[in-house]
UniProtKB/TrEMBL annotation:
<keyword id="KW-0472">Membrane</keyword>
<feature type="transmembrane region" description="Helical">
    <location>
        <begin position="119"/>
        <end position="140"/>
    </location>
</feature>
<feature type="transmembrane region" description="Helical">
    <location>
        <begin position="213"/>
        <end position="236"/>
    </location>
</feature>
<feature type="transmembrane region" description="Helical">
    <location>
        <begin position="339"/>
        <end position="360"/>
    </location>
</feature>
<feature type="transmembrane region" description="Helical">
    <location>
        <begin position="36"/>
        <end position="57"/>
    </location>
</feature>
<dbReference type="Pfam" id="PF00528">
    <property type="entry name" value="BPD_transp_1"/>
</dbReference>
<feature type="transmembrane region" description="Helical">
    <location>
        <begin position="242"/>
        <end position="261"/>
    </location>
</feature>
<protein>
    <submittedName>
        <fullName>ABC transporter permease</fullName>
    </submittedName>
</protein>
<dbReference type="InterPro" id="IPR000515">
    <property type="entry name" value="MetI-like"/>
</dbReference>
<feature type="transmembrane region" description="Helical">
    <location>
        <begin position="179"/>
        <end position="201"/>
    </location>
</feature>
<feature type="domain" description="ABC transmembrane type-1">
    <location>
        <begin position="196"/>
        <end position="363"/>
    </location>
</feature>
<keyword id="KW-0813">Transport</keyword>
<keyword id="KW-1133">Transmembrane helix</keyword>
<feature type="transmembrane region" description="Helical">
    <location>
        <begin position="89"/>
        <end position="107"/>
    </location>
</feature>
<dbReference type="InterPro" id="IPR035906">
    <property type="entry name" value="MetI-like_sf"/>
</dbReference>
<keyword id="KW-0812">Transmembrane</keyword>
<keyword id="KW-1003">Cell membrane</keyword>
């Protein structure tokens, strides 16, 4: 049973033995940084982590050993390939795969832990995705450098980071143009307008019946069809990108809010009527609270749609600044690392934006079963 649960450790040990048979790690024509001592230390680390996954010790101790051995081995392997890109042999990739299996086992051990402290549980919820994301970057780095993937096809994360660190003023100007002007303005206006029209449509039945089919139709409109029209209408500055964001965020908010206002049960509405509550009292005290999960669902969807819409709209005309402008121009110059730097910054900002909305939802709808664990 222990062997089945720790199969990652068994496979890591097997890969370690196969790598030992297929040494050296790099080709014969390279000045290999992997001396006998370094290679033996990496093999020992992986073997120690693999054996630790079978030991009957506390889960925190086992996870700690796996964490240290997996990441230290991967760090040594990736550090040694620098300057010898494309010269890695099969044994190198076998050890990378073995380290990854130990990292996988570490995440599995952490996922099964149930700490009693709320602070420890929060830290664990942050640690698990952080380790998972770290391994995505480690594998990306190891494969692109070890296999000698052409830089123009896929640069390694270290090169992307170097570009980000060396282009902070350019990236900051692009973020200010795209995010703090087009995205935020369009997001606020689009969501607020969608919410207001949803309340009006809820009040007027014929408006509700007419708007919802149009909303479903507008949700299917392609961005690349809307963006050039908005640029023609509102010019090349950030206002046209904000208009695209408004169009993209308006209808998801409208449809979700209308659906949420119908989520309250008939018994609750009858009870409010028995208390002689009017429309606005019922709306504020019953129907809007019941609609909050739907409204926040629209806000979370729009947090990503707004960013996508603004960046795509900048492909169709913009001043010489902006994330979409930078991506379109730098890919034409074959500066792929700069394109990936813009993508990475956009991904981080989008994740933070989504996280802020999710935290606001958690604070607002703490009574909902999805936030109470029930």
């Amino acid at each position: 049973m222990t062997l089945l649960r720790s199969w990652q450790g068994a496979f890591a040990l097997l890969l370690c033995l196969l790598a030992l048979v297929r040494l050296p790690l790099l080709g014969p024509d390279t000045s290999s940084p992997f001396g006998t001592g370094t290679t033996a230390f990496i093999l020992l680390l992986i073997a120690l982590g693999a054996l630790a996954s079978f030991l009957r010790i506390g889960r925190p101790s086992r996870a700690s050993v796996l964490f240290v051995t997996a990441h230290l081995a991967a760090w040594l392997l990736i550090g040694g390939i620098s300057g010898n890109e494309g010269d890695a042999r099969l044994s190198y990739f076998l050890l990378i795969a073995a380290s990854w299996l130990l990292g996988w086992r570490c995440i599995a051990e952490l996922a099964e832990m149930r700490p009693s402290s709320r602070l420890a549980m929060t830290a664990l919820r942050l640690l698990i995705p952080a380790i998972f994301g770290t391994w995505v970057l480690l594998l990306w780095e190891a494969i692109t450098r070890g296999a000698g993937v052409p830089f123009i096809l896929l640069p390694p994360p270290s090169a992307i980071w170097d570009r980000i660190a060396g282009s902070v003023p350019i990236l900051a100007a692009d973020v200010r143009q795209t995010i703090f002007k087009a995205v935020l303005f369009g997001y606020v206006v689009g969501c607020a307008a969608g919410f207001a029209i949803a309340i009006l449509a809820d009040r007027i039945s014929f408006l509700r019946r007419g708007l919802l089919p149009i909303g479903n139709l507008m949700s299917a409109l392609p961005i690349i069809g809307v963006a050039p029209i908005m640029v023609m209408w509102f010019g090349f500055d950030w206002q046209s990108k904000a208009a695209v964001v408004i169009v993209m965020t308006f209808f998801p908010m409208l449809v979700n809010t209308v659906a949420g206002l119908s989520a309250s049960g008939s018994m609750e509405r009858d009870l409010m009527r028995s208390y002689a509550s009017g429309y606005w009292q019922t709306l504020l005290k019953l129907r809007l609270p019941a609609a909050m999960p739907f409204i926040f669902n629209a806000l979370k969807i729009n947090s990503t749609l707004a960013l996508i819409g603004a960046i795509v709209a900048e492909f169709f005309g913009t001043p010489i600044v902006g994330m979409g402008f930078r991506i379109s121009t730098e890919i034409g110059r074959m500066n792929v690392d700069m394109v990936w730097a813009e993508i990475a910054v956009a991904a981080v900002i989008g994740s933070v934006f989504y996280g802020v909305v999710a935290l606001a939802e958690r604070a607002t709808t703490f009574w909902h079963p999805s936030n109470r664990g029930g």
